[in-house]
Amino acid sequence: MALPSIGQSRLIAEQLDALVRTLCPHSVGIIGCAGGNGLDRLAGAGVSRVVGVDLNPDYIEQTRQRYEGRLPGLELYTADIQTASSLFEPVDLLYVALVLEYVDLERTMSTLWRHCKTDGVLAVVSQLPHETMTEVSPSPYTTLCRLMPVMHLVSPEELQRQARHAGFCTEASSTILSPGGKSFSVDTFRRRSQQTR
């Protein structure tokens, strides 16, 4: 994702930076934090608590080594957001970038609702279909091809429908391009006080 021809790591970090500057949250949760991409943007941004969650314990350990002591209130969890009922105290901003393509959307949205404060914001970056490009970008890392059978792109309409069902209100939706030419949807939602189901 960090290859210049793909540029998705930079895109993810820039979107997180823009959201934090706009929303000024005290607490931020990053779902699918990988090795900590974008966390450097939170140092000195007025955030007093940073939560990172990833399924891969190696990624969590890399994030710990890079940012422990550098970010205030850093909490790191190895967990599957599809099944975890309560991982951490809710945050003001939940950031989920290129994760929902690999999970059960309905179950995950319910988990996200529980981990977002009332009137907090859920921000989602999702990959959109491309007429000529494959869903998984070609790269020297051929093992990434294993992702293709489990990757399912989520349309903005389906994302918004599931978010409403979970108890979020749609705030904004926009489309951005990566340096590699792929399109991504950036959607923000506000958490209501009660789930609608």
Helix-strand blueprint:
Blueprint: H1 8-23, E1 27-31, E2 49-54, H2 57-67, E3 74-78, E4 91-97, H3 105-114, E5 116-127, H4 156-166, E6 168-177, E7 183-191
Parallel strand pairs: 1-2, 1-4, 2-3, 4-5
Antiparallel strand pairs: 5-7, 6-7
Helix pairs in contact: 3-4
Give the gist of this structure.
The chain is an alpha/beta fold and 197 residues long. Helices cover 24% and strands 27% of the residues.
Structure, described:
The chain is α/β, with parallel strands linked by helices and 197 residues long. The chain has a single domain (8-93, 109-149, 158-191), classed as Rossmann fold, CATH 3.40.50.150. Helix content is 24%, strand content 27%. It contains four helices and seven strands. The chain has helices spanning 8-23, 57-67, 105-114, 156-166, and strands at residues 27-31, 49-54, 74-78, 91-97, 116-127, 168-177, 183-191. The protein has a seven-stranded mixed beta sheet, with helices on both faces. Strand 6 (168-177) and strand 7 (183-191) form a beta hairpin. It starts with 7 loop residues before the first helix and ends in a 6-residue tail after the last strand. Residues 1-6 and 132-142 have low confidence and may be disordered.
Task: Identify the notable features of this structure and list them briefly.
197 residues, disordered N terminus, globular, 7-stranded mixed beta sheet, Rossmann fold, alpha/beta, 4 helices, single chain
Helix content: 10-25%
CATH topology: Rossmann fold
Q: Order of strands across the widest beta sheet? A: 3-2-1-4-5-7-6
H-E order: HEEHEEHEHEE
Overall pLDDT: 86
End-to-end span in angstroms?
36 Å
Per the principal axes of the C-alpha atoms, what is the gross shape?
globular
Record field, number of beta strands: 7
